[in-house]
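Example record

The entry below shows one chain as it appears in the dataset: sequence first, then structure tokens.
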Amino acid sequence: MPDGRVALLQELERADETAAAELAEVDRLCVDVLDLRERAHELGAFFRRLRAERAAAAAAAEEAVRALAAARVAAERAAEASARAEGDADAERVAEARRFEVRARDSLHMAQRRAQSAREQMTALEARAEAAERETAALEARARELAALVEPRPRLAHDAVGVPREGAPGIEEWATRARAALLIARSQVEAEREAVVRQANELGALVLGETLPPLGASAVARRVERELGA
């Protein structure tokens, strides 16, 4: 058995390990880029809805303020009517005035709660908008970090990746291109690795004089080394 065949198997083993490591790194980048794209898509959708949500929240708050003002007027009038009825000899009229005042106060309390809720919703919406702005800035920084990792990689069409633009839409667009380029590169590495493994299996079968089940290059090399050691 010429030593050159063992050396070639060991070389194929190293090539297999290198390809496996490259695949693992590309897979990690694909996951990171996909996560970035999905979050950027969510933020972009939020910002596209924000104007309409702000208008709706403002309209609800204005309506709640008008309803509260009307409820206050109604409560004041009911209280005045109840006070005037107190001196009335008609007990039924007094009772009716008191019931009207109670209903008016209840309506006022409900209007106050609705107005407070509308204000809180506006405040919460603005807090969400501010948080989304901060997260967008963080995503922009993360996109630049990933671009620095993706850009120098071999096998990529660099003009298909480039530098991410600012803002959620720009991040999403860059991440879409970057992931597509990474997937193409991954398919190339995978095809090369399959060729390496196939070559190792063919060489192992030739050396051992038997048909081997599908094995990785490392497994073939160990099998051959054991046989030669025996």
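Notes for this example: The chain is about 85% helix and 0% strand. The mean pLDDT is 89.
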